[in-house]
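Quick one - first record:
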Amino acid sequence: MLNSTNHTLFLLLLLFAVSLPRKCLSLDSDSPVHGRTFNRPDPLRHFKDYHGDFDVRNKHYLASAAFTGVHGYSFAGVWLLFGLVLGIFIIVKSLSGVTPSLSCLDHYYIHILFLLLILTSLALIASSFVLATSQRTLRRTEKLKETVVNIGEEALEAIGRVMRTTKQIEYLLLPYNPQISMSLNSTTEALRTNSRVIRRFIDRSEQSFNKATHTSHTAHIVVLGLNLVTLVASLVLMLLYWRPGFIIIILCLWILTSLCWFLTGFDYFLHTFADDACSALEDFEKNPQNSSLGSMLPCINNSFSGKLIAQIGSTIHSFIVELNSNVSVLYELLGISQEKEEIIGVMKICNPFSGAPNYTYIPQSCPHDAVRIGDLPKFLARFTCSREDTIEKCRKNGRFVPQTSYNMAHAYSRSIQDMLDIYPDLQKLSKCTMVKNKASEIVLHQCKPIRVSTKLLWALMMSLSIIMVVLVFAWVVEALRCWKKPVSTWFRI
């Protein structure tokens, strides 16, 4: 009876351990989900609408999300093309002997100069604000990255504890039940494979986060840094009133304006992506099975995981109840005769599980006179006859439990106790508690700041780009004002 119960217990735990990583921690799940979907043009499909959901692994989602910043990309291209056409027009006119210039408006000189000063100051202030907001966004994105990576790290730690335990149980039971040891060995290998998958996912996610956030931040620093230098240089040239240098300033500002508009589109894409990610996390928090993140962070169905955990608790509970109600069976298994049972007395093993129907794990609920299943070898050690002692000496000292029986009891009790010790980890893995807790933390504490930060970054970048357009036009007006000389003579000494 006891051997049958042991066998059933470990086969059930084996089934749980093998099925858990594939259903709860697999990162290649293709289970259908019905989360929030989008209707956005997809450049990779000839601008047909993308009707899918949030999925960073899907190039069509990324393309459609990036296309939301088309207003910035388009204006950057049109502005650059317009500047090229204007430059060619001026050069052609100059080479033909006709100098394109505006009529002299000397009485408007102070007004234009004042306008340039105001626009340049606004551009300097806006650039500073954009840099500060970009830095703030980087910090918040880094915090989000750490939270996401910690999800995988905590899962790896839990799997590592389960792996070490199953390996230990495998060695303990090998002399007494090779079949279960072999099964546990395959379980350990399955856990190790899944841990490698999770590690690769963590590394790729971390690299992707770093590449995206640091590339964006570096682009903002480079473009806006050059913009600040150019704006300061334009102020110096304005005060010196060195007209040949105006054309260089206009050329630099024109290119920087195009880059600013491109970053405006990219920042809108970042805001869209952050909003989509937070919306997906909100859906995941409400219903993991119906969220688009369910395919990337899959969890066992709640009803299935609840039944599975309850079944494990029921099996261990029934096993200990059987031991407590049939102590004579245990004594018989250990080779203790009926005469010696009275010496040992009635032994009660602690049952850490409540009764039906929930079988809740409550390790603190054990009575004072009960023995933990893991402490059973300590209890039997007082009555165990070691191999070094003779039979007569053992009988004289009241040690009548054979060493081999003690070793077997130690192996089984230690194995069950080890399984009880990792039971909380099994609960977390089966119910994806770690994933849900981290998702709730992101939704509650990080989503709103990231949404506000990315939207503010886009708004400031848009404002800077508009200011730069007006500023460049003002510089063009000032450069062409009263210029009657051909362009070919501008740089002659």
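second record:
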Amino acid sequence: MEERGCPPKNCTYNTIIRGLVNNNEKSRAMKLNWKMVERGFSTDASTEELIVDQKRIMAFIDTFES
């Protein structure tokens, strides 16, 4: 996107992150979330909820794998 002169906006990041989470690409979603925050953007309420839920699920799964 940026290469073509169209920098992402807050809405763009949130939409892509939600899509990644919904497609079970949690690692990519988290990396994009960090990149988004580094660039001065913030997640909206629904995206933040998805991320928090995913972190809880991952922590829950880790307790069984340990």
